[in-house]
Write a structure and sequence with these properties.
- The protein is mostly beta strands.
- The chain has 3 domains: about 170 residues, Cupredoxins -  blue copper proteins (Immunoglobulin-like); about 130 residues, Immunoglobulin-like, CATH 2.60.40.420; about 130 residues, Cupredoxins -  blue copper proteins (Immunoglobulin-like).
- The protein is built from 4 helices and 34 strands.
- The longest helix has 6 residues.
Length: about 500
Amino acid sequence: MIQRRTVLTSGAALTGALGGAGIVVPALSGRARATDPATGPGDVPQFQQAMPVPETLEPTFASGTTAYYSMTMKEVDSEILPGRLTRVRTFNGSFPGPVIKAVSGRRVVIRQTNHLTVPTSIHLHGAHVPQSSDGSPMDLIAAGGGTKTYTYPNSQPHANLWFHDHAHHHESETVYRGLTGLYLLSDDVEQNLDLPSGVYDVPIALRDARFDDSGQLAYTMNDPKRTVLLANGKAWPYFEVAARAYRFRLFNTSNMRFFVLKLSDGSSFHQIGTDGGLLEEPFETASLALSPGERADIVVDFSRYAAGTTLVLNNARPLRPDDPVDQLTKVLQFRVAGPVANSTLPATLRTLPPLGSATVNRSFELSMDETGVTQDAYINGRPYDMDRVDTEIEYGATEIWTVRNASTRLPHNFHLHLVQFRVLERDGRPVTSGPESGLKDTVALQPGETVKIQATFTGYEGTYVYHCHMIDHAAMGMMANFRVSRSRVR
């Protein structure tokens, strides 16, 4: 059985990552402390750095059926805090990580080379892939030059996917130090819609961090004081927009941080998609919740604002008594320029496949030591064991899983590899519309909360994992194996 590393340092059990509604008073400029007042590089000016758009990686070779890429994992220095260089772990030296643009039905093959000092395993989060390319926790690429080739068939509809390290006992720190990238999978359904495109279609990776006196990332397992918020690799940046509609593809790439995002003037926007692609129709809202690993596709129309207007994308969430309000309630500033030609949001986006009939029901309970005495986390009372298959599934089966957060103070979430699922109920209330009515692969659970999900396990046989995607919790043991087989043991 795999045991936790003894080098994992103990952190506070309460992460400060609780998500929830709340109203904050917007502030459009200022400075913020980079870490706990007793440490760190001092005041960090907010909204002084432009938010970059992650670079799109070009294939090294492309045929009619396949695009080939080559990536090297390595450490580089990046300017996250203004005027300071921070050492980060990257794909191809890019922080934020690069973007791969793929098309449904056309394979992507990526040769990954690991020049880091720790082993890695690259997981394409949300992808329908064979076990050999899933990035299993113990399917490792050796440090110091090891290589592995991943094949992604892209045999699924459009979706906003992302890739990150999944090497057990290393994933928490390696992801925290930057080893992530974005993977935008498109298809004809999406491309035939008049959605904002080109420079008006912007992926944004959100996360938090903590820095030491020298401006380096400070890592502690389960750390509640990661209070510097980053958008596309910059601390509290600004982004200049034209007075027209923008599509923002939002990725929560944090280890632990929950976001509840609102515009500072309280105005509404439209959510058009979630983890597994577009919703059936746009959903108008003034608030968007994202747990670690979740994605959301939104359209914000800035044509209603005069040139020169500034807006802040706020994080509205309950704060711990010792949390720095000025830091955790602001994420990104928008600066509105002049108007340009606009696009029209379609009333209908897609038709989702019917749910089908489930033949198997299962229950799962997420729990952990909330006292801070140990770093133990469980699913159904057991920590992760790479050699144990926890759930046997018949190939092609449609199943309903009831997942409960048994913790009394801590949030969790639940991520399922191989397949997208549908959320049927939350605390007994049916989910028939809104952001959780689409295809999902990650779902949030507040303390004591229960969700019911439905998935069909087809496409590939093999052993995969399900786990809490608060990555520190997965590294602490909140993960389990499931095996899909045509001849499963009953």
